[in-house]
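Annual report, structural modelling task.

Input specification for the nicotinamide-adenine-dinucleotide complex:
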Amino acid sequence: MTKTALVTGAARGIGLATTRTFLGRGWHVAMIDIDGDELRHAASDLENVLVIEADVSDPTQVARMAGEVTAAFGTLDALVNNAGVADFGPIAETTFERWRRVMRTNLDGPFLMAQACLPFMAQPGGAIVNIASISGVRASTMRVAYGTSKAAVIHLSKQQAVEYGGLGIRVNTVAPGPVDTKLALAVHTPQIRKAYHEAIPLNRYGVEQEIANAICFLCSDEASYITGQLLSADGGFQATGVGLPALRE
Ligand code: NAD
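The model returned the following structure:
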């Protein structure tokens, strides 16, 4: 039977690469994004997709979206909570509104989406993948809101994995390292890019497809006994506790 996935933030970047990967494997995909124009443009050359403009942080829009996906798909095999926003700044300059903007999409979104999709997820057999970041594992300056939202998503996944395990639904997290997308280009200066290259054992940024491959693996039956886990697709960045660039030269 044809499998179905829902991908948020599907208009571009990692979400669009994930959508294309599912489609390449014969799945049907519900593409969700807040940016309707970019979403429709991205989907214009794709088949077997359902396109829904919605804000994942708005409970009313999430409920409407869930109704449309159920009507079209009946059952959902995979939910990928990928939509995210980045905001880099020192703590003193992170106003409550900036903090809430990041938390709304990055944390409230995955919570609301999973709650709304659970009733029509395959039980057993459904899979949820939440997208965190290396910033949720390793602390840094300038990321009080972004890093904290992603650390919370990692724990949210564990809560969901433990509670939904009895339903036969698996929940895992993918933590990408830096990937060249619009999100990263907006906040990574040339100096930051150079520093990342030096700090990452594989010595480069990741590409969208490499993250999509990790996501689709965790949604597949090949990962049928894996739940509650964090998979870092980061070129080894997370592993380098005291791996100072100077020590590797
Ligand atoms: P991107 O900015 O290219 O794409 C994000 C998409 O999410 C956009 O299409 C945007 O319109 C959509 N979106 C934002 N807020 C939304 C909302 N409230 N409701 C629905 N859609 C919304 O970003 P990307 O780099 O592809 O990032 C995808 C995910 O990967 C994010 O969760 C991000 O935090 C995470 N991530 C990215 C990197 C990186 O370096 N690019 C690194 C680590 C983690």
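The first helix runs from residue 13 to 24.
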